[in-house]
Specification:
mainly alpha, 302 residues, 3 domains
């Protein structure tokens, strides 16, 4: 039996509490937040749009109050710093509290899209193995719905297993046929590749095609795509390595040698020392940070 009721998360409970408090205020402005609704579904957040908006507004208010009170109570300490002595403390308190409030609001606004992107990455990475599993199960001649049971039963495929679980829940709890359940799954999936596969499965089922053969072909295509992606990542990592050697090993050594020679030729020593210190204490740390970011962006995500 597919798991029918998931454990309610903290966000869901908090959203319901906030919605009870702010229902009358949130309902008239809910139309301005309709763009969040598909992201909530794709992020697999078990909370409706009204409760999520209520949680967003309530959290923003709480953060504003907390920051404001902290600045008021910490006034004797903060006012001793010279940097704040020429600034209106009331204005500083209000501006800081407002910035924290808007930061909280936009954090809630962006969270579903970040969660959706994270689920998309996990699904895209795990899809080749999941399709291979589906093709193997399909080769035994079982009904199509049983193929998705194989993904749910052992939960080896992470977010893909979760999408299969929701699809089976649509069949068992809501009485949908497999094609209708696949359509709903395709529309709410955060991964374009998984959605495309669901639509092609629908076309195969409707036309009486061989689902096993389709899954084998799709698995081959996905593995080939993954191979090309890894090859491109390796090439990019090679380029990053060349940049690292040139910019962060050879260039600093060259600069230090050149400035030392210029110092022997009579150039102002203080200026040359400043150049060396900037390269060593600012240029190298910034360069290392940039290289780490580049590596994180180009390496295959697993």
């Amino acid at each position: 039996m597919v798991e029918q009721v998931r454990k309610k998360g903290t966000l869901t409970s908090y959203g319901k509490f906030a919605h009870r408090l702010l229902h009358n205020f949130v309902q008239p402005i809910l139309k301005y937040f309709e763009d969040l609704s598909p992201y909530l579904r794709k992020a697999d957040l078990t909370i409706n749009i009204g409760a999520y908006v209520s949680a967003t507004i309530l959290s923003s208010i709480i953060v504003f109050v907390v920051y404001f009170c902290c600045f008021v109570f910490l006034y004797p300490v903060i006012s001793t710093f010279s940097i704040f002595q020429n600034v209106s403390y009331v204005m500083l308190t209000v501006i800081t509290s407002l910035l924290a409030m808007f930061g909280t609001f936009f954090g809630f606004w962006l969270y579903p899209s970040f969660k959706t992107s994270e689920r998309k990455r996990k699904i895209e990475n795990g899809l080749p193995a999941a399709v291979d599993t589906m093709a193997t199960i399909a080769s035994t001649g079982v009904p199509p719905a049983v193929i998705f049971w194989s993904l749910v039963e052992y939960r080896r495929h992470g977010e893909i297993s979760r999408e299969a679980e929701k699809l089976l829940n649509d069949i068992e709890l809501f009485g949908l046929d497999l094609v209708s359940a696949l359509q709903r799954a395709a529309l709410r999936s955060p991964s374009p590749s998984l959605s495309e596969m669901f639509w092609k499965m629908i076309a195969t089922i409707r036309t009486g095609g061989d689902l096993r053969e389709y899954l084998y072909i799709e698995g081959t295509k996905l593995r080939e795509r993954e191979r090309r992606k890894i090859e491109a990542s390796i090439d990019s990592l090679g380029m990053v390595a060349e940049i690292y050697v040139t910019a962060l090993i050879l260039a600093p050594v060259f600069i230090i040698i050149m400035t030392s020679i210029m110092g022997l030729m009579g150039t102002d020593v203080a200026t040359l020392l400043m150049v060396q210190q900037v390269v060593i204490y600012i240029g190298l740390p910034v360069g290392y940070a940039v290289i780490l970011i580049m590596i994180d962006q180009v390496q295959p995500k697993v």
